[in-house]
Amino acid sequence: MSVGTYVLARFSDTEKLLPAIEKLKTCEHVRRWNAVEGHVHLIIKTKTSSASLPDTIKKLDGLSEILSYDILSDGQGEDKDFDSKYCYSYVFIECESAKTEKIINSLQTEDGILFASSVRGGCDIVALVRGDTFSAIDRIVNEKISILDGILRMKTDRVIDLKQI
Q1: Which residues of 83-104 are buried (b: 16+ CB within 10 A; e: fewer)?
Q2: Same domain for 99 and 125?
Q3: pLDDT-derived band of residue 162, with 50, 70 and 90 as boundaries?
Q4: Kind plus residue range of the DSSP H or E element containing 134
Q5: Taking the chain, what is the end-to-end CA distance rounded to the nearest angstrom?
């Protein structure tokens, strides 16, 4: 059973990104959203399963692709605002299914890794990494995550603090 969904949204026209964010702010099903730099433009965390995503998300103007990962166990717990003195990156991890729980347990003990959630629908784990700089985050990803037994592939998306632009 899903406790929510991570929705990854890519836009064909990035000029449509800010108006899309304004729409997301009015959607009651959205827990949080983050603009990111990586393989997508927005990461949206919802209260609903991927099967019942609201039209507000599915019909965002300029949306060219949407990926959704149902959250099976939410390692994050309560959604909190990000502290602007840090940098953040989401890491989407594909791993050997028999090793998912062991990897999640390992991730949750590492400094700099705020949470690791079990998901389904295209990857197995979503983790959030925090560091003083993006270089520090890259070191955590390379030295603490990628070396774990059972990791097959990873994608990292750096969170963009739109208030600082």
Answers
A1: eeebbbbbbbbbbeeebbeebb
A2: yes
A3: confident
A4: helix 134-140
A5: 38
65 & 100 share domain: no
Distance CA(81)–CA(128), nearest Å, equals 13
In angstroms, the CA 30 to CA 98 distance is 31
98 — phi, psi (to 5°)?
A: -70, -15
Structure confidence by residue, pLDDT tens digits, 101-151: 999 999 999 999 999 999 999 899 999 999 999 999 999 999 999 999 999
Spatial CA neighbour of 146 closest among 125, 164, 163: 125
The domain that holds 118 is classified in CATH as: 3.30.70.920
The alpha carbon of residue 160 and the mean position of all alpha carbons in its chain are separated, in whole angstroms, by 12
Structure tokens at 22: 């304004």
Cα–Cα dist 162/59, whole Å: 22
Contact by Cβ (8 Å): 22, 146: no
Range of the domain at 114: 73-164
3-state secondary structure of 51: helix
